[in-house]
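Researcher: Last one for today. Full complex below.
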Amino acid sequence: MADIITLTDATFNETVQASDVPVLVDFWAEWCGPCKMIAPILEEIAAEHDGKVKIAKLNIDENLNVTRDFGVMSIPTLLLFKNGEAVARMVGAKPKGALVQELSPYLD
Amino acid sequence: MTTKTDVLIVGSGPAGLTAAIYTARAQLSPIIVEGEPSSTSDQPGGQLMLTTEVENFPGFPMGIMGPELMGQMRSQAERFGAELVTAKVSKLDLSQRPFKAWVGDTEAAPTYEATSVIIATGARALMLGVPGEDRLLGHGVSTCATCDGFFFRDLPIVMVGGGDSALEEAIFLTRFASSVTLVHRRDSLRASKIMQERALANPKITVRWNSQVTEIMGDTKVESVRLVDTVTGAEDTMDVSGVFVAIGHQPNTELFADQLELLENGYLKVHDGSLTSIEGVFACGDVADHTYRQAITAAGSGCMAAIDTERWLETQGH
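Model: Here's the assembly. Have a good evening.
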């Protein structure tokens, strides 16, 4: 099964820019109920789209710089990076179908 | 393909999951359509998924986190063989037995045929419905203090509402915010005395009485709100970085509003415990409770609905 990458302030830029496929970053925290709701969905998406997208998690409590740089003000927030650029933003927990639909244009 | 079941439970808050635990233990193999992830309305696990510490659920003397409590209830239901489906019911046909429920395409064959249905769809938070609210949701406008309070460290925010939820969230938000202005449309709060005392004693909380937010302004994130005085009609603006809303709830009745009898206030009408206006359809939790609206009362009513369902199925020869 595809692994979910753990990002930090220190590894964020390098990982997102070096990736040859889009990276979906999940901004989350331990205390966030809706973040827990979407965690299993992200695992499924990682497995089902293995090789087309990488899924990464960034704990906002521990990584304030990246969280601030991207103006995240609500979690869960999902940001999709393609060639190092943020190309899509999804705020709040959403059903799997809605997430896949928003991602699909970027997954080829 | 249509799946047949004796018991279909719609909703997975404390009411739905308690009904699931009881009907599963009674060997009725219930199917629970638990809902879909959301940060604003009727998500799996219900409203407690958006809370932090639950201090008044018996059995947890040190309190328990809302999502944790719901995770435990879910595991307990699964342990006894309840089948949980992460999906939303798109259509419900209660006109004849077996009752029919659809997930997804409502033109296709029904997803489920059920001898009995337990409605536990709960209630969802009301929004203000003012200009700027939708556009700035997630950019300073929040429906989940516990999710988003963190982002307002040392920033001024407003909390709209005057009930227990509003005060509880206002107190929670003082951990982060530089100030919390409670905007309330009347000159007294309807919150419980203990919550009022705690909130009003908090140096970071001030109350703006007789006021309503009429617009939320800001280019890419919230910068200010427009307020109107409900007595004099005078308008002014206040600079804030965050707007949190807790102005009450509405029951989630869309699936069956034209099929089951409702009360005048829109809540589902139940009688003799958990019975609805259609035989074989039972209800529990906040969708039928505008009075208590507690996790423990929802759980209690879920138990009642399960027992009523079990007994009714017996009379039907199940």
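The interface with chain B takes residues 29, 31-38, 41, 60-61, 71-77, 91-96 of chain A (CB under 8 Å). Helices of chain A lie at 12-18, 33-48, 64-69, 96-103.
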